[in-house]
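Quick one, tokens below. Sequence please?
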């Protein structure tokens, strides 16, 4: 197996979904657009995490950070 294949297998394992992708599915169109905008901004990870928690969305702070760093299951080669 090539290095690219091994990396791809680690990045996107079958059946895995990024936690942020799951959050988008829970939000209405307006809130999803707001989240998309703030995820691309320089707002601290913890601020986004706390706002989502106040909305009743259970997600770890590290999930927000991994998504923003492109280290999540959303990323493909």
């Amino acid at each position: 197996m090539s290095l690219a294949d091994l990396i791809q297998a680690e990045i996107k394992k079958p059946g895995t979904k990024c936690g942020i992708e799951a959050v988008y599915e829970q939000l209405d169109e307006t809130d999803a657009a707001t989240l998309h905008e703030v995820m691309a901004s320089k707002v601290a990870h913890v601020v986004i995490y706390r706002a989502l928690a106040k909305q009743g969305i259970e997600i770890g702070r590290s999930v927000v950070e991994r998504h923003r760093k492109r280290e999540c299951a959303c990323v493909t080669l």
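The helical segments are 3-11, 19-26, 29-39, 45-54, 61-68. The chain has one domain: 3-68.
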